[in-house]
Amino acid sequence: MTLFTDVFVFTHKECVISSLIPTQQDLWFLPLGGTGEIGMNMNLYGHDGQWLMVDCGVSFNEPLTPNDLHTSEIVCADPTFITEQKERLAGIVITHAHEDHVGALPFLWRRFKCPVYTTAFTAEVLRRKLVQVGLTDQVPIIEVEENEIKKIGVFNVKWLALTHSVPEPFAMTIDTPVGRIFHTGDWKIDNKPILGDGFSPTTFQKLAKENMLAMVCDSTNALKSGYSDSETDCYRGLLKTIEDEKNRVVVGCFSSNVARLVGLGRVAKETGRYLALIGRSLTNMVSAARATGHWPDDLPIIDAAHLGYLPREEVLAVVTGSQGEPRATLNRLAADTCFDLSLEADDLVIFSAMRIPGNENAIDRLAAQFKSRKIRTLQAHETDNTIHVSGHPCRGELGDLYQWTQPEIAIPVHGEPKHLDANADVAKKNHVPCQLVGRNGDLYQLAPTIGVRRQQVKVGRIALLR
């Protein structure tokens, strides 16, 4: 078992890649974003003169270069490499509707002009985004279902359902004549999800019989031992936290976490509160969930403008800005400049979201601003109640999936370097023969030889909104 890092190892006679156009014998993986960092995922698979893009996401309030003190509000991976040969781009596959996987596509599609493949909920979210950038009805979106197979150029792609914190999250197998790849997308093992069916090990145990060449896998929680908690555990923890409160409660969370929103809708119903959403991204996401049948009919939502007329003990507001984003609702509430709601001393603000690495200072400053007005705040590390659960797998889950699928090669993605290394360690301990750890811009050659060529493509970030 070998951890490949800085050397390029060939299983056959060494060859030279004269240009970055894959031949009929080649099977390549090329991350442009999301490998070595969390966010702005953009991945390419190459075979027989064609490329397949998997995900096209953004990050928020990030610098464009490591030493830049200025941050841009919305950034994405630089797509120059693939736009310069867009005639070879067979299609774009979006695994799910989180911003770090779909958020850049509306801004970049004019550079690609190829079909987009995704499931019904993600398609609904994407269409709403396309309207905002003037691309109404211009992008060919092909909706797919569980276990469906689509031929996208030279790639045969099959969609496999799993569990995450958004409706219809899907992994996929990408099949070519020279090898089959399993791309996990974002996932966790949730046996009691708020939305959809529980995780099905059988689906992935069957992959072991399909000679899986490589597994390209989410690394976000690879440093954490054990298993992630269920979204149902989070609902129960939030209910326990809120049920005895006598004042207003505000919950900050990611707008795309529809399962969390449904859980909070249940909490509101069971505690005699009215649920309201403040933030356009939240209302858009719930609207998409309604349109695709993912929002329960018995969970009403009131207009945020009505919050000011309610007694304090009847208010449950869900808002954006859990990462300390300067223009989001939580910051406006802290500054008392939110049009729909004002908070008073002893109201409670709950942060029901992970602290994304790099955002800790912004979150702490925001909490301090609330506390200066005697408004209480509560973060996950400050309570024994489960008020947030991750949508990503811990080491126990990673080990299970490696054992079930039995790939020849593990390719950790979706994480900072320490997360990638930890994922590779789990793969090695679970008897995956080869682990390839790299960064954005590295060319992973999976066939006919196995290895990584460092920094074969110039990568970086571009600002979509400054």
TrEMBL record:
Domain (Metallo-beta-lactamase) ranges: 39-238
Gene Ontology terms, MF aspect: exonuclease activity; metal ion binding; RNA binding
Gene3D superfamilies: Metallo-hydrolase/oxidoreductase, Ribonuclease Z/Hydroxyacylglutathione hydrolase-like
Keywords assigned by UniProt, alphabetized: Exonuclease, Hydrolase, Metal-binding, Nuclease, RNA-binding, Zinc
Transmembrane segments: none
The protein's name in its UniProt record: Beta-lactamase
